[in-house]
Design goal:
Layout (H helix, E strand, L loop, with lengths): L2 H27 L9 H34 L6 H25 L6 H4 L2 H15 L3
Length: about 130
């Protein structure tokens, strides 16, 4: 068992759980009401955003499952390559998160209020430092 991978796995599973449950509640706040002008178009866009949101939920779930399998079994022949891919994967998520914040309209403490990039960098770093430990 690798403590770095175990912590990354815990963060990833916790992120999946929070993203799925709490995130969906947040999305419902912005759902258009039936009497909104151009309701059908706005509902279509909102539904697409919700589907994309839960696409990320599934990414987090499968990453968590993968990390658990790597940490608790000998199922994969080349765990190092899979861990390298996951480390880069979470790093890429962090980078795109930062880029989107940079190109979006600014608001007070935007990098802290939308600080998921910190978690993504932490997961990436934990996986990286857990390789071959």
């Amino acid at each position: 068992m690798n403590i770095f991978i175990l912590i990354a796995n815990g963060f990833t599973f916790l992120a999946f759980f929070i993203h799925t449950i709490m995130g969906d509640k947040d999305l419902k706040i912005i759902q258009p009401s039936d009497n909104t002008i151009d309701y059908v178009n706005k509902q279509e866009k909102w539904t697409m955003v919700r589907c994309g949101w839960h696409w990320i939920s599934i990414d987090l779930l499968f990453a968590s499952i993968g990390l658990a399998v790597i940490n608790f079994t000998d199922y994969f022949d080349n765990e190092t390559t899979l861990l390298q891919i996951l480390s880069v994967y979470f790093l890429a998520y962090a980078i795109i998160w930062i880029v989107v914040i940079l190109i979006s309209k600014k608001f007070e403490k935007n990098f802290l209020k939308l600080g998921q990039w910190i978690l993504l960098l932490a997961i990436s770093g934990l996986i990286y430092f857990g390789i071959d430990k």
